[in-house]
Design goal:
single chain, alpha/beta, 9 helices, 38% helix, globular
């Protein structure tokens, strides 16, 4: 188990991330939609701020305006595929261990679920093969809420049986909102689980609260993660502007729970 910190807390103030880099030698998860979610980013230049970090790097590929599962528009699916393919190549170039991928982005009032699943699987298979060639782990995250969730719990587990070139990232906050049995999910995935996003919420909104500040029941989650017999990333994915001292305190919390 390796602990990572997602740079979401610094999304609005990326230059302040130096305070974290100066004291943290563990894993970093860099969001390619950053640093501020609004301006196009020259990622070759942007990576210069992280290039001397001695810990492992994970990359969260872009989310916004991309949809691998678009059931209506082939051009959107194909465009999204190309952006994710570029993200894989860039991530491999900078030596990242893992790339996190969202398989869909819900944006329509009528969700064509079965068709969206079909196209998502088709593109995830192609991207998984590309990631395998590059020697990088492609971790697919559980996304969408309630009726707009692309996969339910059982379907999410089966996804990794159907596509052997990808791995699973369980976002525990997303699972909580959808009423999934997160400890059972972790155990069912077994060695196909390569990462977890750790944060809390009220089971209504995706709040990215620090652990213990929402309504999640953590005891079973910790027990399930401790039972894992293989390496995985445990990533704190806390909301924007979470203070540095909270991040570092919660790194210690995760270490204590999972050691």
């Amino acid at each position: 188990m390796a602990i990572f910190i997602n740079l979401l807390p610094y999304m609005d103030r990326i230059d302040d991330s130096k305070e974290l880099l100066d004291c943290w030698q563990g894993g970093l998860e860099i969001a390619m939609d950053g640093p501020n979610w609004t301006d196009p980013i020259n990622w070759t230049v942007e990576f210069e701020r992280f290039q001397h970090h001695t810990g492992p790097i994970s990359v969260h590929s872009p989310i916004w305006e991309l949809n691998l599962a678009s059931a209506r528009y082939e051009v959107v699916r194909n465009y999204s595929f190309e952006i994710y393919k570029q993200s894989l190549a860039w991530s491999a170039k900078i030596g990242a261990e893992q790339v996190v991928v969202h398989p869909s982005l819900y944006s329509t009032p009528l969700f064509l679920r079965s068709q969206s699943q079909y196209y998502a699987k088709e593109n995830l298979k192609r991207l998984g093969e590309e990631a395998q060639k590059l020697g990088i782990d492609m971790a697919v995250e559980n996304v969408g809420f309630r009726k707009t969730a692309l996969f339910d719990q059982e379907e999410f587990v089966r996804l990794f049986e159907e596509i052997p070139t990808i791995s699973a990232l369980v976002d525990v906050g997303h699972a909580h909102i959808n009423g999934w049995d997160t400890p059972a999910l972790i155990r069912e995935l077994g060695s196909r689980l390569s990462a977890v996003h750790l944060h809390d919420n009220d089971a209504v909104g995706d709040l990215h609260l620090p652990i213990g500040e929402g309504t999640m029941e953590w005891t079973g989650v910790w027990e399930a993660l401790r039972s894992a017999k293989h390496p995985f990333h445990a990533t704190l994915e806390y909301r924007r502007n979470t203070p540095l001292d909270v991040l570092l305190q919660h790194v210690k919390l995760v270490e204590q729970e999972l050691k």
